[in-house]
Pirin family protein
Amino acid sequence: MIIRRSNERGYADHGWLRSFHTFSFANYVDRNHMGFRALRVINEDRVAGGHGFGAHPHRDMEIISYVLEGEMEHKDNMGNGEVMRPGDVQRMSAGTGVLHSEFNHSKTNELHFLQIWIEPKQLGIKPSYEQKAFPTAERQGQWRLVVSEEGREGSVSINQDVNLYAGLFNAGEQPTAPPSRHAWLHVVNGEMEVNGETLGAGDAAAFTPDESISLTGKEAGEVLLFDLA
């Protein structure tokens, strides 16, 4: 197990935007943390009320947005216009090229969300968009598959061989980790004991295919687990 501590991440403060970067991103460059398998970006963003990211382009990247607090307004040149709330998962396949914007839907309350980039399995595909809600009850005390290549079990589909699970666990709970190959575990909030080590909000850990993953909740919180080829 290799641990990536929250306070070791890159950080950018733009006033209206405060962002932590698990992997190299924009002006933060760390050759030791360029990504993990097909997982390229995990940015934890806090956007002030009335602000956001204006229209900007992407191509050949699978982009997942996961809202933690507040509301995020999405618009793109494919004609999609949605408002995301906590528990919502959005996937945008940029493919041959897409233009989109993301704004805090509120003029006063802060928006807190994760932006995740995954390198695509196939390049040059037609751009597409998908969004689904995963209620708290579906994640409480269990792992909920929220993203998969085939869109299994009602999950959001993605152009890559990856499974993303989300779970909400109370103190004392010992969830059995789903089967994984190369795994990346990201603690969203709360505190977990993982293979004997304490991981708090923003901490993460990487696992090889032959490693077992033992988890115990120390404080109630949320965890994401990426299963990657």
Summary: The chain is about 0% helix and 55% strand.
